[in-house]
Each structure stands twice: as C-alpha cells, then as structure tokens.
User: What shape does this take?
Amino acid sequence: MGTTSEQKIALLLLGTIWVLLGTCNAEFTPADNYLINCGSTVDVHVPGQGFFRADNSGSTILKSDHNVAANTLPDAVISSDNPVLYQTARIFSVPSSYSFNMKSRGRHFVRLHFFGFRYQSYDLAVAKFKVSTQDVVLLDNFTPPSNSSPLVREYSLNITEDKLILTFVPLGNSTSFINAIEVISVPDDLIRDSAQTVNPSGQYLGLTTQSFQTFYRINVGGREVTAANDTLSRSWDTDQNFFLNSTTTELFAYQAKLNYQKGAATKEDAPDSVYNTARRFAVQNRTSLVSNMTWQFDVDGSSSYLIRFHFCDIVSKAAYSLYFDIYVDGRLALENVDLSERVLGTLAVPYYMEFVLKSSDPSGKLSVGIGPSSLNNVAPDGILNGLEIMKMDISTGTVYVVWPPGTPNRKLAIILGTVLGGVGAVSIAIILCFVLRRKKKEKKPRRAPTSRPSSSWSPLTLNGLSFLSTGTRTTSRTTLTSGTNSDASYRIPFALLQVATKHFDEQMVVGVGGFGKVYKAVLQDSTKVAVKRGNQKSHQGLREFRTEIELLSGLRHRHLVSLIGYCDEQNEMILVYEYMEKGTLKSHLYGSDMPPLSWKKRVEICIGAARGLHYLHTGFAKSIIHRDVKSANILLDENLMAKVSDFGLSKTGPELDQTHVSTAVKGSFGYLDPEYYRRQKLTDKSDVYSFGVVLLEVICARPVIDPTLPRDMINLAEWAIKWQKRGELGQIVDQRIAGTIRPESLRKYGETVEKCLADYGVDRPTMGDVLWNLEFVLQLQEAGPDVSNVDSMNQISELPPDTRRMGSLEIGTADESPTNMDYSQMSTNDAFSQLMNTEGR
Ligand SMILES: *[C@@H]1O[C@H](CO)[C@@H](O)[C@H](O)[C@H]1NC(C)=O
Ligand SMILES: *[C@@H]1O[C@H](CO)[C@@H](O)[C@H](O)[C@H]1NC(C)=O
Ligand SMILES: *[C@@H]1O[C@H](CO)[C@@H](O)[C@H](O)[C@H]1NC(C)=O
Ligand SMILES: *[C@@H]1O[C@H](CO)[C@@H](O)[C@H](O)[C@H]1NC(C)=O
Ligand SMILES: *[C@@H]1O[C@H](CO)[C@@H](O)[C@H](O)[C@H]1NC(C)=O
Ligand SMILES: *[C@@H]1O[C@H](CO)[C@@H](O)[C@H](O)[C@H]1NC(C)=O
Assistant: This one.
C-alpha cells in the first residue's frame, strides 16, 4: 500500500508539470472557414461564427414564402440558432456544384443546412436529391424532413485535395436545394487514428482517413450548447430525450477552472461547458445500485459508429476514488475505468475515450451505459459528461462530380491550358432554374434588355468559392442551350491533333473499330491522350457525335474513361479521351504474354468497372445503358485501376486489329443478353448480363467465344454456368491463379456470376448489388469469412431495386452489332456511338 501512495504522489507531481505545460494552448484558428448563405444577396452575421457570405452577385434571390417578415417563419425556424439563414435557398434542377479552394488539407467539418419551404411552384420539402464530394456521397435519395424545422447535417471529412467540390444532384424530376454551407478546418488530431472496437474487442486502425457523419452530440447532464458557444461551432444537445430514467441520478455543474492536460482532451475536443457538467448516480442509491445509467439513440441499423465518451471528474473529492464500467450496445466495453489513472491523479481534467461499434443492432437502437465497477473495495459510482456518436463508412453510392471551370479534371485542365492557351476554361454557366423557368414562363425574348445582366450567366467567384453548374445534360430540363455554348471549350483545333498524332501516323494506331481508328497521341505538354477519329459520316452520324459529346462531357467518374475534348473542324469527327496506359482488361487476361493478374487485382478491377457501370445506371435522372460491356471496353490505367470506356483500345495495334476483326460479330455475341436478343428490349440488366460474362472471362481467362474448342465449350457463358450450377466452378479457374483463391471467395464470386447471368432481367441483380457482392468477394479473399459481415452484406444486397429511374439513355458503340439483329429502332450503324432517349418507346 505504501508504495502505491508514493507512486501516486510522484504521479501527482508529474501531473502538475504536465498541467502547467498543457495550459498555454493557443486558440485554434481555422485555415479554411467558408460560411455561405446560399441563394442570398446579403451577408448575414451569425453570432460566434461570423458572416455567412451571400453566394451570388446580386442577380438572383430566392426567398421563402415566409420572408415577408421574419416573424412569419415557423416557430421552429425562428427558434433555431440562425433563422435568417433559412430565408433563402439556392435551387438546382440540374447537377450543380459549389467548389471551395482549400488552404489546408486534413480534417474539416462540412455542414449543410436545409429548410424545405415553398416558393411559388417549388415545394422544397419534397425535393429529392443527392449530395457528394469528389470522394464521398454525403446524402443520397435525400428529402428534408417535413416537420418545418431546419436540418443541419454535419460531416467530418479528411480533405486531401486542394479543392472541395460539393455537387448537388436532383433525382427523378425533382430539384435540389441548399440554404447554407459551412466548410471549416478543424484540428487534425480531432480524430485520432485508432480506437478500441467493441465486439469483438480489438483495435480499429485507420480513423484518420474515415469520413464521419455526426449523429448525436450530447452535453450529458448539462445545457444545450449552441454553435456560438462551442470552440468549433458544434452544437451539443441535452441528454433529456436520450437518458433512460431507470435509475436516479444527479446533475453536477462545476464552477472552477478545468485542468486541461497535455495528452488528454483539448478545448477543441469539447468546450468547457460540456466538461463542467456531468450526470452521476444519485447518492442515496449508490450503495445499492441495481441499474446502469443508460442512454439510447436511434441510429441506422447495420452501420458502424465511432462513439466518444467525454469525461471530466468534477465530482470526486479525491483522486483514485471513482471507478466505473462503460457499456456500448449492451456490452461491456471497458471495465473498472479509473479516470485518475489516465490523467496522472489530477481532478477535473477533460478526457475522452472512444470506441468503434462495428455493426449496431438492426433494430436501429444504440445504447450506451455507465455502470458501477464490480471491484469490491470501491464504492459503486459513475459519471458521464458528454457523448458523441459519429457514423462511419457513410458513403454508399457513387459520387457525382460537376467539375469547376478550369479544372474539370486535372488532365483536362492541363490540356486546355496548353491547347487553348488559357483562352477559355470550360465555360460552364450558372443555371438558375429559377431564373430560367421564370424567363420561360414570361416568354421574354432573350435579346430584350432585362434587368438581369448577362454576367449572371458566367461563373462567379468570391473568396475562392465558385458556384457553377453544368449545362451539358441532354434532358428536357436543360433549357440552357443558346447564349452559352457550354462545351465550346472542349473543342481542340485539328492542327493540334495533327501534330499530336504525327499526322495520324499508322504507327500511332492503337485500336481500330467500325467507327475509325484510335491513335495514341502526345500533346505539347507531353500529356498522353487517345484520339478516336471517325470516318467522315452522314448528317445523322454528326448528330450522334454531338450528342455523345454533350453527354460524355457531363460524365465524370473515376471509373469511366473521360472525354477530354473533341474536334469537328473540316467535317472531322474526333473524340479525345484520357490515355489508359495499361490497355484493356482483356489483354491482361489472355492472348498476350503479360503476367497474370492476381485474384485480388482481378476482383479489384471488376469492382472498379462495376462502380463505373453502377454510376451510369444510377447516377442520373435517366439511367444510361452502356450496351457494349466487355473486357475489351474495360481499360486499365497505370495503376491498373479500371475504367469503363465505350471504345476498344489496346496497346498493341496489329493484335487488336486482328482481335477486332475476328470478334466483330462473335465477340459481342458472346456477351449479349439473351433476353435482349429475344425480345429486343433493352434494360440496364442487359449490361448486368454482359458484365457477368466479363466476370467469367476474368476467372477463366479465356475468350467468350472460342470456335477452336469442342462444341459445348465454344460459348464461355453457357459452358461455365454449367460448371457453376454443379458447384464446380473451381474446376475451370485460370490455372495460373487457381491455388490462390480462397474457397469462400470463389463461392461468392460464382454465385454473383450466376445471378448476373439469369435468363430474365428481373432475376438479375442491379449493378449496385453486383458491386456489393464483389466487395464481399474481396473481403472474403482478404480476411476469410466473418459472420458479422455476412449478415450486413446480405442485407445490403437485398435492398429493393432502384425505383426512381424515369427512362433511360443508352450509350455504346454500334459497330459490333450482330448482323442478324434488327437495330432499326435503335440506331444506325457506324456512328461513334448511339445515344438515345428511350422514354418514348
Ligand atoms: C414529375 O413529378 C410529378 C410529381 O411531382 C409527377 O406527377 C410527374 O409524373 C413527374 N414527371 C415525370 C416525367 O416523371
Ligand atoms: C488524411 O488522410 C491521409 C491519407 O489519405 C493521411 O495521410 C492523413 O494523415 C490524414 N489526415 C488527417 C488529418 O487525418
Ligand atoms: C453562450 O454564449 C452567450 C454569449 O456569448 C452567453 O450569454 C451564454 O450564457 C452562453 N451559453 C452557455 C451555455 O455557455
Ligand atoms: C425520471 O426523471 C425525473 C426527473 O427528470 C424524475 O422526477 C423521475 O422520478 C424519474 N423517474 C424514475 C422512474 O426514476
Ligand atoms: C433507488 O433506485 C430504485 C430503482 O433503481 C428506485 O426505485 C428508488 O426510488 C431509488 N431510491 C432513491 C432513494 O432514490
Ligand atoms: C449494466 O448493463 C450490463 C449490460 O447490459 C449488465 O450486464 C449489468 O448487469 C448492468 N449493471 C447494473 C448494475 O445494472
């Protein structure tokens, strides 16, 4: 005993030194601090946070019904912290984005403010939309709650690029809107890399790269803390609605100064007002505790959460006298916690502990508790000061990005810089549907002088923030056609392409198709590109060429090969794409002497391609059907990352030339959806079928049609599916990698293929489901089976099919159509690609 108290004294002294060192923390100043009052012409001051800047130059303003006088706003809004932020909104009817230039990388809060009001014909409360950054889907299928109170969604993102682009994508024929945006740097160590996991107990690593959505932030036992009173403009709720009153407790408030300590929590982790209040077991009952203090929260079942407990021993008379247990989701997370031990015997030291709960109760309830320690020489006791619940792995869908002018993506930026001498960054115009619709309604002639200066049509920048929107969608809602030629800057001079391709030298040909040839080209700045030059065609072909440009320039996805520009001078029809260093997936599977790809790499490539296709199918109001999914249309960049393309491209010209000729009919035939063939009805499930065939190619590493083989083996899909149905897919796996595939991974893969190849489209999974299943295949390969994951993956793959599709656009190359099919309804042959609106069929 004697030694322990000596130790304690030593610790105490040490602690004092630490405290002295730790107290002189300078206040944190965020490097990035964007506060935007959307749709407004005026800056508004919000106490404690500063000015929310108007996001436009004064040409448009959209006010709510309630703006006649602020006091006619609903009570919920008036009583909100910043009612004035909710009086205006910006509405988008096409995908549009805000772009923020980031001064600092690392952890940031992104807060989105929504209040769905009615304005003229708009009922924002029924808007349905998606919001994503370049990397993370923040909201999908989102409709603001209709209880007429504002909603603030807060995200904690590790921003690694110099721009943050927030893209708002209306779904269906809806609109999207936003009332206010905050993008604020926070201290990088606000999120540390590791935390303890609950069930099974272990260590979670990799939190610093995670994106979180704040679900709950509670000042336990204390008052509500508003953004103005928080060190990082967070809001903290009271625990009233969450505390289960199963035991009697008392509330504590501490008046003296808190002892911030180095290595413990900082003022930025939570403000004083959180740490200086606590809830504790009531004195009378403490000797005979029969129940824990429990708080319960509604969450999304089957998600992961980072749960942070804030403690500060403001209740004890002496150190080393308070012991308690921590429960998460009904499980003991940490036993006999002694705060004094963690803060060197000092009282009133802010401290936090956090846990990762992998998969919560599917009922959607998450409970956390503090219970008495079971040590028999300590008094039953326990406190809690604050609690944060942050959802992890928030991004499920596919991101959609409307790139800002000048940097639609890095490659394009470089090329435009060189090619156009900086003349025009892509002039993407602001589309304010509000203005447009009103103009339409009023039928004002465009040329008539109006009060709205033309400057309202050009990109607008203030304080490094730019607001923009694409006008490149080919839907009926895109009314912006004249006035701003939104794709003009994608145009690349023919002379320049001549130089880049050495006058279309045959040596530079890397692929050939019915449409013409694909050349590798090097631009002046030594950027490599692929130049697809069409045979000079009919007027019809020209129209489709233009439509493809319009559609493709709106498509930006890391798993789709992007269009960099085009040239239509002198009747040319040339498309310029990013160059894919490693050629086609097909060339890595068979028919070349490239080293075999590992199983993991193959699955990763399939996942990438599935993401690209999933984005085509669901990223737009109208789904886009690729129509020519095959291993030759999946290209690999220098890191072997897959991108779906719509044209064949290979590194070795003659070889591809040959391949192309011999597979022009049969090749595509091997991928063709039998239902599509029978009924000539095209759906996105046709792509799923073709993708299933690609999956077989990937695992068997043989051509989809190989006439040199015995009759029953010629068609890969027919042959392989027989093996799969017998449960013997393992027998026909690429021999070079067969031994490396884990049986569970193989089984899941086989099942996925089988589902994709179902006879009827309705029985096939969506691309999204396929994606999930492939991710699971990868997980099984890497980690082996994990029962808790099996459940969640199954749940995910059984989500109902996407129902919000309104029609579809298709895109694909037509040059390899089977000759015996009637394509008259669909397109003419030999165009660059077909693109049509299938709504009318
Ligand atoms: C657009 O939405 C309205 C309901 O708001 C619906 O009645 C209408 O059918 C939709 N139009 C299309 C083309 O989906
Ligand atoms: C952000 O993520 C990168 C890796 O993508 C990591 O290196 C960096 O440390 C992270 N930053 C913070 C502040 O967590
Ligand atoms: C919040 O700050 C205001 C003034 O800035 C102050 O009057 C108020 O008491 C503070 N509230 C809390 C809970 O600290
Ligand atoms: C619940 O809490 C209230 C005070 O908030 C208290 O008056 C009441 O007695 C509690 N009920 C139980 C069952 O402990
Ligand atoms: C002690 O706790 C029990 C339930 O846990 C409650 O019924 C009882 O009223 C409490 N006693 C006092 C004195 O608060
Ligand atoms: C606290 O909760 C845990 C888990 O639900 C339970 O096992 C334990 O008995 C509880 N303790 C008390 C004192 O109620």
User: Anything to note?
Assistant: The chain has four domains: 33-186, 193-391, 464-579, 583-798. The radius of gyration is 30 Å. DSSP finds 18 helices and 41 strands in the chain. The longest strand covers residues 106-114.
